[in-house]
Amino acid sequence: MKQKKQINRKKQNVKQPTFKNKQIQKTNHYNVKYQKQRKTYNSAPKQIQKKKIKQKKIKRFKIRYGRVVLLFICLWLCIFIIIKILELPIQNIYINGNDRLTDQEIIELAKLDTYPSYFKTLTSELKKRLEKDPRIESVKIQKRKGKEIYLTINENIPLYYNQNTGKTVLFDLREIEENWNAPVLLNYIPDTIYEQFQMKMKEIDSDILERVSEIMYQPTSVDNERFLFTMRDGNYVYLTLETFENINNYVSIYAEFTSKHGNKKGILNLDSGQFFTIFE
Predict the structure, then answer these.
(1) Of 71, 129, 133, 224, which sits with the fewest C-beta atoms within 10 Å of its C-beta?
(2) For residues 22 and 16, what is the distance between their CA atoms, to the nearest angstrom?
């Protein structure tokens, strides 16, 4: 009996696991399982990545020589076509505004007589070549349709040909060494009034200048600024520096005279008043 009691006491003395200890054991068990699963999941993509790296290393690029040759042929054809387009020549040249210069002279001055490449011919270069000539005051250039060039010329009008110096004085007072279809100044003009004479000549209309054949300085004791103009139609006109611009009315004045007296020649006095003296 004593032994049974002792055994029962021992059993009573043995501590049975509490609820908290059971819960900790369960959580530890689950943590171990989760870590194992995590290791398996983490190890899987690494293996896949290694396989991909191996596959990338195994890949080799094949050079397709046929396509390379075809590419070079296409490039060569493009370059050839571009060169041919750039070498297309000028086909037509249109020139306007020139009265004294001929079309051929302008073409030669612009160096277009060989009809060079349309695209290689720059308008800036043409403008420099043409305006370098003193007979051309300005020029307007237009390129059209990939084959045509239009030149609008503004000529530098000749005022007179100075027989003493052998040079033609142009509208901007530059000089050229040729008689360029201008009125001829026959004698010397004093330096004191020469500059004023040039300014007054610029006030005369171009169509009237074309009617003047010769200019002579003819001062008098009363007026040292008197000039005699010989007209191409056979008439004479007296002027002073103060009345130079009156010659712009020459056509209307002479027309009025011929309507009254017929087609007669004489001297138109514009130096003092406005009257016409008929030749006897």
Answers:
(1) 71
(2) 11
**Dihedral (Cα; 41, 42, 43, 48), 10-degree rounding:** 90
| 162 plus 269 within the same structural domain | yes
Q: Are 234 and 171 members of one domain?
A: yes
Indicate whether 235 belongs to any domain: yes
Task: List phi, psi (to 5°) of 186.
Answer: -80, -35
Q: What range defines the domain where residue 238 resides?
A: 158-278
pTM for the model stands at 0.66
Domain co-membership, 112 together with 206: no
User: Do 229 and 258 fall into the same domain?
Assistant: yes
> Tens of pLDDT along the chain (280 residues)?
444 445 444 444 444 545 444 454 555 555 545 454 554 445 545 555 555 554 555 556 666 777 878 888 889 889 988 888 888 899 999 999 998 899 999 999 999 999 999 999 999 999 999 999 999 999 999 999 889 999 999 999 999 999 999 999 999 999 999 888 899 999 999 999 999 999 999 999 989 999 999 999 999 988 999 999 999 999 999 999 999 999 999 999 989 888 888 888 999 999 888 888 888 6
The C-alpha atoms of residue 62 and residue 107 are separated, in whole angstroms, by 60
Burial track 156-194 (b if 16+ CB lie within 10 A, e otherwise): bbbbbbbeeeebbbbeeeeebeeebebbbbeeebeeeee
Give φ, ψ of 176 to 5 degrees: -125, 150
